[in-house]
Design a protein that fits this description.
Blueprint: H1 3-9, H2 14-25, E1 47-51, E2 54-57, E3 62-65, H3 80-90, H4 101-113, E4 119-123, H5 126-141, E5 145-149, H6 166-170, H7 181-184, E6 187-190, H8 195-205, E7 209-214, H9 228-240, E8 244-248, H10 261-265, E9 271-275, E10 285-289, H11 291-294, H12 313-328, H13 333-354, E11 358-363, E12 366-371, H14 376-386, E13 389-390, E14 399-400, H15 407-423
Parallel strand pairs: 3-13, 5-6, 5-7, 7-8, 8-9
Antiparallel strand pairs: 1-2, 2-3, 4-10, 9-10, 11-12, 12-14
Helix pairs in contact: 3-12, 4-12, 8-9, 13-15, 14-15
The chain binds pyridoxal-5'-phosphate.
Pyridoxal-5'-phosphate (PLP) binds near residues 70, 154 and 251.
Length: about 425
């Protein structure tokens, strides 16, 4: 019997049979934990296509997408110029394990936007970017200790998973099993915004601290708006102690303008980590900084870092097309901020009206929603999904707006939110 006939006989939808297959082959049905939607009592979505601000599941139901691949799809889905770039690049073959013109072009485009990057290295994910930057910081300073902030996420490297933000927070895992204590002995956890705390840490460990790593705008414990004064203070104290300052801008790079938060605030970190947006939706990471530090990397220096697929020409082409587009429309970033304000203000209003306690966090084109009553979020989420609005499946994850979101999309999101709140 054909598969479709079997499915009809048992009244199985395409979605439910795919979910069954996903569950039998992937742990929790997924390849990355947040996608599982377990914490809100749901099954993973199976998405078959995306266009502009929307994605479609395998039953052809469409959703206005505020996940946007955790911020990566800032131009929306299937953007024409990115699609052309990918197609065109693929006609010349797709990987050589050698330098190609495309990676030089993307690197130069990034440098144009973030001028303090004198040298850059491409890798395949944000996690790898951070791992490379941290190893380089340790190699350059000859020191062991790394300071990270509670609840910030810097990828899944062993020594950075302590108090690791959204993914772990959602599953209520304080520390991943499988990471021996010895692996994070050199990691110091600090409280974001607390100067005294950092001063104490430096008094105790100053000579041993290789770097402070920070998300200049927090995107992994809900949205944590930046504290510019504090970031300046971090710049100052790291300099005083000959430690490096690493900005993890994997989410924030190119999210608020054609460039990095570092430039926005005029703070020059020693190293910057990039990812997500700069690959146009294909797997990428990068880290960069001044010549003086970067030249400690192999092949010039003794800090080893390598990868087979670094600088893949298709990824580079997608990244370059995305950044070129962002450079053209950089005057319009403000509209994304306005849309976030519209959505969050209307949510705030209705919550006050019906007496629901909610904490909304936002910064420019990112926002997160946390209800005072923990049981509310899963219900709220489901009601929104039924109405075709897709938010990040955890209160600890950020939501995003893309350049493909229209006024109508924002209206629809607002309407759906109003209805959902009234149904709570
Ligand atoms: C997503 C993210 C990472 C990890 O990037 P991957 O590509 O998922 O490995 C690192 N740091 C921050 C701030 C991130 O948001």
């Amino acid at each position: 019997m054909a598969e479709s006939t079997i499915n009809k006989l048992f009244k199985k939808t395409k979605e439910s049979s795919l979910l069954e297959r996903a569950n039998s082959i992937f742990v929790g049905g997924v390849n990355s934990p947040v996608r599982s939607m377990r914490s809100i009592g749901m099954k993973p979505l199976i998405i078959q296509k995306g266009k502009g601000s929307r994605v479609w599941n395998v039953e052809d139901k469409s959703y206005i997408d505020h996940v946007l691949s955790f911020g990566a799809m800032i131009l929306g889905h299937d953007h024409l110029s990115v699609e052309h770039a990918i197609k065109e690049a693929s006609e010349r073959g797709w990987h050589f394990g050698m330098t190609t013109p495309a990676e030089i072009e993307l690197a130069e485009t990034i440098k144009r936007a973030i001028p303090f990057i004198e040298k850059i290295r491409f890798v395949n994910s944000g996690t790898e970017a951070v791992m490379g930057a941290v190893r380089l910081a340790r190699g350059f300073t000859g020191r062991k200790k790394i300071v990270k902030f509670k609840h910030s996420y810097h990828g899944h490297a062993d020594y950075l998973l302590v108090e690791g933000g959204s993914g772990l927070a959602t599953l209520k895992i304080p520390l991943s099993k499988g990471v021996p204590e010895e692996f994070y002995e050199q990691t110091i956890i600090a409280e974001y915004g607390d100067q005294e705390n950092i001063e104490t840490i430096f008094k105790k460990n100053g000579e041993d601290i290789a770097a402070i790593i920070v998300e200049p705008v927090g995107g992994n414990y809900g949205v944590v708006p930046p504290n510019e004064k504090y970031l300046n203070y971090l710049r100052q104290i790291t300099k005083q102690n000959q430690s490096l300052l690493i900005f993890d801008e994997v989410i924030t790079g190119f999210r608020f303008g054609f460039g990095a938060v570092a430039d926005l605030f005029g703070i020059k970190p020693d190293l910057i980590c990039l990812g997500k947006i700069i690959g146009g939706g294909l797997p990428i990471g990068a880290f960069g900084g001044s010549d003086g530090i970067m030249q400690d990397l192999a092949p010039l220096g003794d800090v080893y870092q390598a990868s087979t697929f670094a600088g893949n020409p298709i990824v580079m082409a997608a990244g370059k097309a995305t950044l070129q587009e962002l450079e053209l429309i950089k005057g319009n970033y403000g509209s994304l901020t306005r849309y976030v304000h519209e959505i969050t203000e209307s949510l705030e209003e209705v919550c006050i009206e019906v007496g629901i306690g909610v904490n909304i966090s936002r910064y420019r084109s990112m926002f997160s929603i946390k209800f005072e009553d923990q049981d509310m979020f899963p219900k709220f989420y489901k009601y929104l999904l039924e109405q075709g609005v897709l938010l990040a499946p955890s209160e600890y994850e950020a939501n995003f707006i893309s350049f493909a979101h229209s006024k109508e999309d924002i209206e629809e999101t607002k309407e759906a939110i109003l209805k959902a709140i009234k149904m709570l």
